[in-house]
Amino acid sequence: GQPVGVIKLLCKNWPDIDRINAIFRNIQMMIEPLAHSVEFTLLRRKEIELERADDERTLFLKFISQLSNLSTLAEICDRITDEFLDWYPYQMAGIYLANDNRLELQTLRGAGEEFNSLVEPIKDYWRNNPYQTDQMDGAPVVALTKDIPIYISDINAIDHLPMTPKDREAIQLFGTRKTVLHVPIRLMGEPIGVLSLWGLGDPVPIE
Q1: SS3 string of 78-121?
Q2: Neighbour count for residue 177 (Cβ, 10 Å)
Q3: Cβ–Cβ contacts within 10 Å for residue 115, how many?
Q4: Which of 44, 77, 85, 184 has the highest count of CB atoms within 10 angstroms of its CB?
Q5: E strand residue ranges, the chain
Q6: Mean pLDDT of 165-174
Q7: Which residue in 50, 89, 81, 48 sits closest to 63, CA to CA?
Q8: How many Cα atoms are found within 13 Å in the side-chain-facing hemisphere of 109?
Q9: Stated pTM of the model
Q10: What DSSP designation does 201 have?
Q11: What is the tens place of the pLDDT at every residue in 89-143?
């Protein structure tokens, strides 16, 4: 079998050989129930992991089923962003889709009333000032054109660095923005848009 732990004994004086043998015999009597207990714990942990994975798979299939019942692009985008806000500890989510040389905002959603109050001015700004995809117009464009995710754990820590005017203006509209994650949306292996998540409280770890 595989080692699962160590029993450590400390003696003030070195015991004689008979005493050592007696200790070993006592240890052997304890090993079997201890091994069974460890094995049960590991099996139970694996069972919990499988149950969690099954629950997540069920929720995902339910989500896919709900998407198939939606008929408009706006409904689908809203449903996707709402789902991501339920799954992950971000406070705002948006979807951009590429159209000609522009990356256009399709939806922007907040996680509850507290953050929904921020949505409209930000949505208006991006719809009136869409990102241009033929130039490095902002972080979402980089995620799209390079086909890579972009994650910044604390936007305030890089606020002093150069950035595009549109990204700079967006930071002001968000107020106390902490974390941002831009992920390319692919169709047939090609990026067609970007899913963006923003954390407006404490920095959100990538895990």
Answers
A1: HHHHHHHHHHCCCCEEEEEEEECCEEEEEEEEECCHHHHHHHHH
A2: 21
A3: 19
A4: 77
A5: 92-99, 102-110, 131-132, 150-152, 179-187, 190-199
A6: 84
A7: 81
A8: 21
A9: 0.68
A10: S
A11: 999 999 999 998 999 999 999 988 888 878 888 889 988 999 999 888 899 999 9
